[in-house]
């Protein structure tokens, strides 16, 4: 990314912007900017960009194009993110482009599993849990459950519900079932066929690891734990949130994840009339509540530092996609 792109809405109240500036100034001194600019929106735009650049890794900054919007409840994008409470403001983030990264994770997982059983799977969980969506097997499964199976563990309940609706509408059982089956975008058996169960199963989700970690992974683990410990309740994600990068175990699983995400994503983009985000994330707060603003800015930093460390790790282990 050459720069962070900000879009500050013209109808923002000056008092709200000034409260945000006051709290940002406690985290990142704005004196140098204030000596050159006196418009609150301009100061906030420049200050936010420089603040983000102060803690995101430089190699990550060069790779990502991060869009930042600051909006009130009047100009908030409800089609994209849902409804914002009255008299609230929000800071939202999303990537402007997909990251073309090929990083087969399976060998790394096997290597760490040999050194310390359980750690390789825990490492994959760290990437799955990142607040800026990364396309892991676990996140694909959750997307399929939410978008395609009405939050079920597989498609069976979805099929039975659609079938019952069609029968109630007067169709025969055979026609109803045939129609219901045709509405399934992705099936659980596709996960079983293309991915190891441990990589996506909710029952095998190692959210914690207590043994000593390899030196090269302690920073990433610390950022994961910091975000997990400090995250607040006023964060939110887009209604359709697609990953910014795909993280497969090898070439076949990478290809499956790409095709599956495309299949679900294309269908859901039509359903949401083209409204979607790549790795979207946001925090909401009352613009006159200093504590809420401070908490939001802290969480933004924790989330972005965590995300930045994940992307930096993938950049360090990226490979050329094999062309047969």
Structural class: alpha/beta
Q: What is the β-strand count? A: 6
Specify Rg, calculated over alpha carbons: 22 Å
Q: Roughly what fraction of the amino acids lie in strands? A: 5-15%
Q: How would you describe the shape?
A: globular
Q: Figure out the total of helices.
A: 14
Low-confidence stretches: 1-12
Mean pLDDT: 90
Helix content: 40-55%
User: H/E element string?
Assistant: EHHHHEHEHHHHHHHEEHEH
Major β-sheet annotation: 6 strands, mixed
Alpha carbon gap, first and last residue: 31 Å
Task: Describe the 3D structure.
The protein is α/β, with parallel strands linked by helices and 324 residues long. The protein contains 14 helices and six strands. The protein has helices at 14-27, 31-34, 40-55, 58-63, 78-81, 106-115, 119-128, 137-148, 156-168, 173-182, 188-194, 218-230, 251-271, 290-316, and strands at residues 5-8, 66-72, 89-95, 235-236, 241-242, 277-285. Strands 1, 2, 3, 4, 5 and 6 form a six-stranded mixed sheet that branches. Helix 6 crosses helix 7. The longest helix is centred in the C-terminal third of the chain and has 27 residues, at 290-316. It is globular, with a radius of gyration of 22 Å. It starts with a strand and ends in an 8-residue tail after the last helix.
């Amino acid at each position: 990314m050459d720069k962070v792109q900000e879009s500050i809405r013209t109808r923002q109240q000056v008092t709200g912007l000034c409260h945000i500036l006051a709290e940002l100034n406690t985290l990142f001194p704005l004196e140098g900017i204030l000596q050159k600019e006196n418009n609150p929106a301009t100061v906030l735009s420049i200050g936010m960009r420089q603040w983000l650049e102060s803690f995101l890794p430089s190699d990550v900054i060069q790779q990502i194009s991060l869009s930042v919007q600051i909006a009130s409840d009047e100009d908030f994008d409800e089609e994209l993110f849902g409804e914002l409470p009255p008299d609230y403001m929000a800071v939202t983030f999303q990537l402007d482009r997909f990251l073309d990264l090929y990083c087969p994770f399976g060998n790394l997982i096997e290597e760490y599993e040999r050194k310390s059983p359980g750690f390789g799977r825990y490492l994959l969980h760290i990437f799955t849990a990142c607040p800026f969506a990364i396309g892991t097997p676990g996140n694909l499964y959750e997307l399929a459950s939410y978008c395609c199976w009405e939050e079920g563990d597989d498609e069976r309940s979805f099929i039975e519900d659609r079938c019952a609706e069609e029968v109630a509408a007067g169709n025969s059982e055979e026609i109803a079932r045939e129609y219901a089956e045709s509405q399934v975008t992705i099936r659980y058996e596709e996960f079983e066929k293309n991915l190891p169960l441990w990589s996506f199963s909710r029952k095998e989700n190692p959210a914690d690891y207590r043994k000593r970690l390899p030196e090269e992974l302690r920073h990433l683990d610390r950022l994961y734990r910091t975000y997990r410990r400090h995250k607040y309740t006023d964060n939110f994600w887009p209604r359709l949130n697609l990953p910014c990068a795909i993280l497969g175990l090898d070439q076949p699983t990478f290809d499956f994840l790409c095709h599956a995400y495309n299949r679900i994503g294309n269908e859901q983009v039509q359903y949401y009339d083209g409204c979607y985000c790549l790795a979207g994330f946001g925090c909401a707060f009352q613009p006159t509540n200093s504590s809420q603003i401070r908490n939001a800015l802290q969480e933004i930093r924790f989330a972005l530092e965590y995300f930045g460390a994940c992307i930096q790790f993938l950049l360090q282990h990226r490979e050329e996609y094999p062309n047969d």
